[in-house]
Amino acid sequence: MHILVFKTNLEDMGLVHHAGRLLNPMSGIHRWNVDLHDNDNILRIEADLLVSPRQVEHLLQSAGFECEELAD
């Protein structure tokens, strides 16, 4: 398992809920959360090693969200 961290534009619970409808069915994601108190609206995902940051970025960006992996 690994942790993926992204900067997003998920700035309220409505957007977080919409993103969740995309993330929840994604195979390999065990849990995720968004820190709405952070200026970068950080999305943190605990996932299997098979889940790549690019998959998450593509999934959310194709739905119109901003999503950019933050490097360690």
Please outline the helices and strands.
Blueprint: E1 2-8, H1 13-23, E2 29-35, E3 42-47, H2 53-62, E4 67-69
Q: How is this structure best described in words?
A:
- By secondary structure, the protein is an alpha+beta fold.
- It has a single domain (2-69), classed as Alpha-Beta Plaits (2-Layer Sandwich), CATH 3.30.70.
- Helix content is 29%, strand content 32%.
- It has helices at 13-23, 53-62, and strands at 2-8, 29-35, 42-47, 67-69.
- It has a 4-stranded antiparallel beta sheet, with helices on one face.
- Strand 2 (29-35) and strand 3 form a beta hairpin.
- The chain starts with a strand and ends with a strand.
- 17% of the residues are buried.
- The model has no long low-confidence stretch (mean pLDDT 96).
